[in-house]
Amino acid sequence: MDDLNEKFIRCAQDVIGLMKAVDHSVVLLEKEFRRRFIGERFEYYEVEKVDEYKYTAGKFHRDMAGFKSSYELNLFLLESNLVPKGKVTDDKGEIIHQTYSEYAKNNWIIIQELVFYPILDLLEKYKSWDFSFDELFGVFNEYLQFHYLLDEISYFMITPIEGFVLDVDEFQFSDEIKIVKLSDDMKTHITTYGDRGGFIHSPIELRNISYAFYIERRKYKKVKQEDDFNLIVLLLVMSLRLATPANVFAKHSYNKPNKCRGILTSIGTWHEQTTRTSLKHSSNDVPLSKSDLNKAKEVFLKLFSLKGKKNGENIYNVVLKRFLSSLSKSTYEDSIIDYTICLESLVLANLKGELKFRLTLRAAYLVNDEFSPSHTRQVLSQMYNDRSDIVHEGKTLRQIKKYKGETGLNEQEQFHNYKEITKAIILKYIMLLSDGESLEDINDRLEREAFSGS
């Protein structure tokens, strides 16, 4: 360990010298610089001067190749079996066999992950270069353990959520997924450490948020792909919106520990589709019962069971994104377009003609245990006409005067009807698809039964 400590410190000194030479003003620490990571390109933008300076991963690797210390650390880590020697291939994909020495001279991703990233962590923590090499060596060991030595890692993710209130402090969706009361400790954690990508929540912003998704998963190094945290959050929000009257919104998620991240990337995920952007669709916190949560749990498990399956493609590729984003739209008109796309993707799958007739016919039969067929046909026919007026004539919902004459409802009441019918139809399809039916079989059966009156 003494040899490793010595080699690491020599390499870290050279890397710090390089970072200071490249960036005299330590732009990593200044708020007036926006930071982002695109592919392998690190870009710094000075807002006031509108100057651009780029420092690429390739340039960093070339600079590291000039240091004896980086080569010696690379070689020591490889020969000690602390990091694996990766596969190197030629332009034809053929494996090139290299000695440890050859590999150490030409592959600097190890130094990037185990030296550069720990330095960045401490820079972001202290906002200065005033940290000790002992502390830096400790962070290096954490990265070494996490990225190279451990066979499995336990991750957890916290996602603040709003739009409802519960009479319980915790509800379990599965062994690894639950809704929890957002404690003061959790709020402190995400307002202190969630600052890597600029999506930090201030304590004031979180003051009135009481709940969070808490997701803990195990990642096995030998497994090629783990279940995606972001997808789980989207499925949870979708399930709660479909199964309960609450308009649930997810905030920024925070992962701990970090996954192997690119330089200056975010610590977590900003959930674009579930971010509150429209006051038009906002509502007060809705009380949810244990029965509401159990129904949402059932929907979540059904949705999750469709992941990666052929008969779940329309749900995952179209309906999930469109339905979630519908409440983040700033106008009723945009939301109606999202709703009709959801319905067409399910009810009209693989159809070319008689779309409006088929949509109202099939859907009316599908949800006849919740709404009368005449009500469903009327609402869907009206929504389809409105979508046509919005898209082809540029009208707003308020400008479509037919509401007053045909339904006597104002735009908000009419939109509520559209939303509830859409939710009911999507729910029915999720349940049927999760039982193994295909969209084609479901729709053929609905049409036969609707025509026969059975």
Overview of this protein structure:
The protein has three domains: 2-149, no CATH class; 151-305, no CATH class; 306-454, no CATH class. It is 52% helix and 13% strand. It is built from 17 helices and twelve strands. Helix 12 (332-347) runs parallel beside helix 16. The termini are far apart. Residues 24-54, 194-200, 220-226 and 256-268 have low confidence and may be disordered.
In short:
This protein is α+β, with helices and mostly antiparallel strands and 454 residues long. Helix content is 52%, strand content 13%.
* Element-by-element helix/strand order: HEEEHHHHHEEEEHHEHEEEEHHHHHHHH
Largest sheet: 7 strands, antiparallel
Low-pLDDT segments: 24-54, 194-200, 220-226, 256-268
Instruction: Report the radius of gyration as a whole number of Å.
Output: 27 Å
**What is the subunit arrangement here?**
single chain
**Record field, number of beta strands:** 12
First-to-last CA distance: 77 Å
* pLDDT averaged over residues: 77
Shape: elongated
How many structurally independent domains?
3
* Overall helicity: 40-55%
- In DSSP terms (H or I, runs of 4 or more residues), the helix count works out at 17
Counting helices, strands and paired strands, the structural category is: alpha+beta
- How much of the sequence is in beta strands? 5-15%
